[in-house]
Write a structure and sequence with these properties.
The complex is a heterodimer of chains A (581) and B (210).
Chain A lengths: L3 E5 L3 H10 L6 E3 L6 H13 L5 E5 L12 H10 L6 H4 L3 E4 L4 H8 L18 E4 L3 H10 L8 H5 L13 H16 L3 H5 L2 H7 L2 H9 L2 H4 L15 E4 L3 H12 L7 E3 L16 H9 L8 E5 L4 H4 L12 H12 L5 E5 L4 H10 L3 E4 L9 H20 L2 H19 L3 H19 L3 H22 E3 L5 E3 L3 E2 L4 E3 L4 E3 L12 H12 L5 H18 L3 H4 L16 H17 L1
Parallel strand pairs in A: 1-2, 1-3, 3-4, 4-5, 6-7, 6-8, 8-9, 9-10
Antiparallel strand pairs in A: 11-12, 12-13, 14-15
Chain B lengths: L1 E4 L5 H4 L8 H6 E4 L5 H9 L6 E5 L14 H17 L3 E6 L10 E3 H18 L4 H6 L3 H19 L9 H10 L5 H11 L3 H10 L2
Parallel strand pairs in B: 1-2, 1-3, 3-4, 4-5
Helix pairs in contact in B: 3-4, 7-8, 7-10
Classes of the chains: A alpha/beta (581), B alpha/beta (210).
């Protein structure tokens, strides 16, 4: 009996038995009362982790002097069999249940009492489970005949025979949150840290979660170090999730640790009841989320259903546009279409995600759900995709500034007039932005550039008229002079010679407006504009000599027309020009 | 009248309790499934004697009146005095909650178990005008479970008592009365003695007759 242990509640009934069985004092495990599954899990971990137990005796009804007979011993055994914090061999310790009744009577008489979610009675028919009466000779005989279920039989002869279901009384949101958070933590090497959080572990210590974890052995054992953490130094990231206080805030802060204090999450705990973790002030939470609208975020991650009590209801169809997260996305994008938003959700319903994408979210991240017990390598792929999406958002965060500047330009233009000319510029600004927003290929970026360039032609067309003597008159000012670059002085100058005949180049027409109408003197500005217009010409005319022009170090000077960089350079000039109108 | 206070969101979706809103159940059981305002709690307190039993969620959240300066502390005190009053009036009270430890003596019960057995509990109350809490805790076949409990104790006694002393053991007598209601316990014991049955054989007879 050296390595045979017994769970005892020190009743007279068991004391005598322990003495008859000669079980050493050290092998008596004092039974504790549990108020929930988490406590039972922790207790089984504590008592089994550092002991070498070869056989374990558990009275089926606990306490043994309970006023009404029960089968609580089965629950303890189930927690042991599914305790992923223990090595498999410890989990599979042979268990001898003590009961005055044979199995057939236990099943028959308790059939209406067994928990319909955990179905502990199924454990009785798994390998490594034995029954004995309280008769010491019976127990001794049973102990002699016990054999542990082998590690390789664990799945087939234990797990596959159990039937542990998600408790109908627990909203799917809670367990899915903990599950998704832990799974992601696993592939960024933060699982130990996240598991320490009570808000996560309490859900993962439920029999349902334990059953799934044990069914996917790599869930807890596989270790991984993220060799390429997300590069986010200097990036401003906002994270909005009703579960930020329940693991996700800590997890995301670690994932984006490169951003330091520029990673911000709305602390949902402030608005929740400490005990129930339900919102007592959801409006306050949303108000704080709204206070971040308009700030310069490079990336915003928003959970779709921020109020699960109302939005995560089984069998209730809620339009995705009704979700509080969707509404928040809409408000952010209404303020600035250029915000890069990743919508996160524990929902696998594609129509919910699609609604957010159609509204303008850049991408999505589906929190893993226990319904899909993916392997760690699958989770890893999932995370790698998330990282790519994040990088793409960072790369595209220039859209936020361009959109914001566009809005400013609209205000300036509106203050000028509502003429066709002004409207044309406004439309062209919108069109160019839209093309830039949709651009993903070289050619698309170039089209956005050309579209933006058109504003210069609009201005030239507005301010010039061809005179009867074949000259170009700047309205109300005089004729266009022949502006040329003087390499000695590095300035543009003119010998007061007027341009006659054929259409002069657009840069020269614009130089006329700049110097003659607006009396501006920044020669560098016009020189840069000349390069920008030349770049456009090179692309439109397919002039390789222009497009592939290199500087002394071999750097292509005009290839940025194929990226947002070229657009941003031209946009900087356009902003200045509109300011002069 | 039975009173249930449970403001859990979507209660009707989560538990099969539609029956509470119909006919005889509606007349017998009042369910308050919204967080009550403090004045509603005070009204309930004034009419406590209308209720035979009050079953409430362990949190028993109470809403502050709009425009009233009631503090959180006042709300907490109101909750305490409401519970105190129920106890003082000796009205039965049951606390339930998600994953709450089910304890018959402490009158605490897991919420799922509570709602699972609620209908049978009310049915019994309607038919017998008696609150049978064992139905809430052990279900409709509570008598079966209780019988098993007594037999369990009987078997324990048989195991630890010398056969010659069976006739003097009240627990054995009580158990036998339950298991064999039509027979006299002493006659049964005599019969066992005459046959010189061993304890194991006696226990087997008891189990076979369960």
């Amino acid at each position: 009996m050296n390595n045979t242990y017994i769970i005892s509640d020190y009743t007279t009934k068991l004391k005598g038995l322990i003495s008859d069985l000669e079980i050493p004092e050290a092998n008596i495990i004092g039974r504790e009362d549990f108020t929930n599954e988490q406590e039972c899990h922790d207790w089984t971990t504590k008592v089994l982790k550092n002991k070498h137990i070869e056989k374990l005796i558990i009275p089926l009804s606990l306490p043994t002097d309970a006023p009404v007979i029960n089968t609580d011993g089965l629950i303890i055994a189930l927690h042991i069999r599914l305790n992923y914090e223990l090595e498999i061999l410890k989990r599979l310790v042979p268990i001898i249940f003590l009961s005055n009744f044979p199995v057939s009577k236990i099943i028959d008489k308790n059939k209406n009492v067994f928990d319909a979610d955990n179905n502990p009675q199924n454990l009785i028919f798994t390998k490594g489970i034995y029954f004995s009466s309280f008769d010491s000779d019976d127990i001794k005989t049973t102990i002699k005949g016990t054999k542990p279920c082998l590690q390789e039989e664990y799945k087939k002869n234990v797990l596959n025979k159990l039937n542990v279901l998600r408790k109908a009384t627990i909203g799917g949101h809670d367990i899915a949150n903990a599950w998704g958070c832990f799974k992601l933590a696993q592939v960024v090497d933060l699982k130990d840290k996240i598991f320490e959080l009570d808000s996560i572990s309490k859900h993962l210590k439920q029999l349902y979660a334990k059953y799934l974890i044990c069914s996917n052995e790599s869930f807890k054992t596989e270790r991984r170090i993220d060799l390429e953490p997300i590069k986010c130094a200097g990036k401003k990231i906002l994270f909005i999730d009703d579960k930020s206080d329940e693991g996700w805030g800590d997890l995301m802060k670690n994932i984006f640790k490169g951003a330091g204090d520029n990673f911000v999450f709305v602390d949902s705990a402030k608005y929740k009841n400490n005990e129930t973790k339900l919102f007592h002030n959801f409006d306050g939470f949303i108000t704080e989320c709204r206070s971040h609208i308009g700030k310069e975020w490079d990336l915003i991650i928003i959970d779709l259903r921020l109020n699960p009590e109302k939005e995560d209801v089984d069998n209730e169809m809620i339009s995705p546009t009704e979700f509080s997260g969707y509404k928040l996305i809409d408000e952010f994008l209404t303020k600035n279409e250029g915000y890069q938003i990743i919508v996160s959700t524990a929902s696998n319903k594609i129509w919910n995600i699609n609604a957010a994408l159609e509204r303008g979210a850049s991408s999505y991240y589906v929190k893993e759900s226990p319904e899909f017990n993916y392997s760690v390598s699958e989770t890893n792929k999932h995370y790698e995709n998330f990282k790519k999406d994040v990088q793409k958002c960072f790369e595209r965060s220039y859209l936020r500034d361009i959109y914001k500047d566009n809005q400013q330009l609209f205000l300036i233009l509106n203050s000028i007039s509502s003429s066709n000319f002004v409207n044309e510029i406004k439309n062209q600004l919108s069109l160019a932005y839209s093309l830039l927003n949709d651009a993903s290929s070289d050619i698309q970026f170039a089209y956005a550039y050309i579209s933006l360039y058109m504003i210069i032609e609009f201005i030239n067309n507005e301010y010039y008229t061809k005179t009867s003597d074949d000259k170009w008159e700047i309205l109300g000012i005089g004729n266009l002079l022949d502006w040329k670059w003087n390499t000695d002085s590095n300035t543009y100058s003119t010998a007061d010679v007027e341009v006659i005949g054929n259409k002069p180049p657009e840069w020269q027409k614009f130089a006329g407006i700049y110097y003659q109408k607006w009396n501006m003197t920044d020669h560098n500005f016009i020189q840069q504009l000349y390069f920008l217009i030349t770049k456009r010409n090179g692309f439109v005319h397919g002039d390789k000599l222009i497009l592939d022009k290199q500087d002394k170090s071999g750097k292509f000077l005009n290839h940025d027309i194929y990226t947002n960089i070229g657009y941003e350079k031209l946009f900087k000039h356009i902003k200045t020009i509109i300011g002069y109108l | 009248m039975i009173l249930i206070l449970d403001d859990t969101e979507n209660l009707r979706n989560r538990f099969d309790i539609e029956f509470l809103f119909e006919g005889k159940y509606k007349q017998t059981c009042q369910l308050i499934d919204k967080k009550p305002y403090s004045r509603e709690i005070m009204q309930l307190a004034q009419n406590l004697t209308n209720f035979k039993i009050i079953c409430h969620h362990r949190s028993l959240r109470i809403k502050k009146e709009k425009g009233n300066n009631t503090s959180d502390e006042d709300i907490s005190k109101l909750k305490e005095s409401f519970i105190h009053l129920i106890n003082e009036k000796k009205i039965k009270r049951i606390e339930f909650g998600r994953d709450m430890h089910t304890n018959f003596s402490a009158k605490t019960i897991d919420k799922k178990l509570f709602y699972t057995n609620l209908k049978s509990f009310i049915d019994f109350y309607i038919s017998n005008n008696k609150l049978e809490l064992r139905i809430l805790y052990y279900g409709e076949n509570y008598e079966e479970i209780e019988k098993m409990t007594l037999i369990d104790k009987l078997i324990d006694e048989v195991r630890i008592t010398d056969v010659s002393n069976f006739k003097n053991n009240q627990l054995i007598h009580d158990g036998l009365k339950i298991l064999f209601p039509d027979k006299e316990p002493l006659n049964i014991i005599k019969k066992w003695n005459n046959k010189e049955l061993r304890k194991k054989e006696i226990i087997q007879i008891l189990i076979d007759n369960l």
